[in-house]
């Protein structure tokens, strides 16, 4: 029979006990898997305002084409509206879900087309200014990006209201 020293027996016993304890901890420990969730989409109000802006820009472009004698008046205003669209798209970049589905939803009750006349643009600018003003006033202060969105919506509303006054006879 092979003789084993107490020290060897004790060290092997401790080794086996440690291995058993480690195995036991690995089996009984709960494993928490993190699921990848898609990012939240941007607020519906913001995409609806962008849709309103896109329709207004389309109206300005049609009016510039249809009324070449008014182009000197309409071109700077159209440039402002185009800049508003760029600013709104910049705000939407704060919401990663925007990149997954960048299509524009219908903007609700506003008309689908803007008449390519100065009177049509005046009415459309005033309606868009009212929509942006309402969006600015109703925006939740607790929303993460409110400090960027609220001033932008207010600024766009003021600009569009000015457009309405410039275009009015």
Quick overview:
By secondary structure, the protein is mainly alpha-helical.
Task: Explain this structure.
With 169 residues, the chain is mainly α. It has one domain: Ferritin. The protein is built from six helices and no strands. Helix 2 packs antiparallel against helix 3 and helix 3 runs antiparallel to helix 6 (146-167). The longest helix has 23 residues, at 6-28. It is rod-shaped, with a radius of gyration of 31 Å. Mean pLDDT is 82; it is low at 105-111.
* CATH architecture classification: Up-down Bundle
> The CATH topology is what?
Ferritin
- Summed over residues and divided by their number, the pLDDT gives a mean of 82
Whole-number tally of structural domains: 1
Helix content: 55-70%
Give me the oligomer status: single chain
Q: Quick one: biggest sheet?
A: none
Q: Helical stretch count?
A: 6
Low-confidence stretches: 105-111
CATH class: Mainly Alpha
CA-based shape: rod-shaped
Count of DSSP strands = 0
- List SSEs in N-to-C order: HHHHHH
List keywords for this structure.
mainly alpha, 6 helices, 169 residues, Ferritin
Layout: helices, strands, pairs:
Elements lengths: L5 H23 L15 H23 L4 H22 L4 H4 L17 H21 L7 H22 L2
Helix pairs in contact: 2-3, 2-5, 3-6, 5-6
């Amino acid at each position: 029979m092979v003789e084993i020293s107490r020290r060897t027996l004790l060290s092997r016993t401790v080794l086996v006990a440690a291995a058993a304890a480690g195995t036991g901890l690995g089996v009984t420990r709960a494993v928490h898997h993190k699921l990848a969730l898609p990012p939240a989409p941007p607020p519906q109000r913001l995409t609806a305002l962008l849709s309103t802006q896109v329709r207004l820009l389309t109206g300005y472009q049609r009016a510039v084409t249809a009324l070449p004698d008014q182009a000197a008046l309409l071109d700077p205003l159209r440039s402002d509206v185009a800049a508003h669209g760029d600013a709104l798209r910049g705000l939407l970049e704060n919401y990663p879900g925007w990149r997954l589905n960048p299509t524009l939803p219908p903007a609700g009750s506003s008309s689908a087309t803007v008449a390519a006349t100065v009177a049509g643009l005046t009415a459309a600018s005033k309606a868009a200014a009212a929509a942006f003003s309402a969006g600015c006033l109703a925006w939740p202060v607790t929303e993460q990006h409110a400090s960027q969105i609220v001033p932008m919506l207010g600024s766009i509303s003021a600009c569009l209201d000015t457009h309405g006054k410039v275009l009015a006879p």
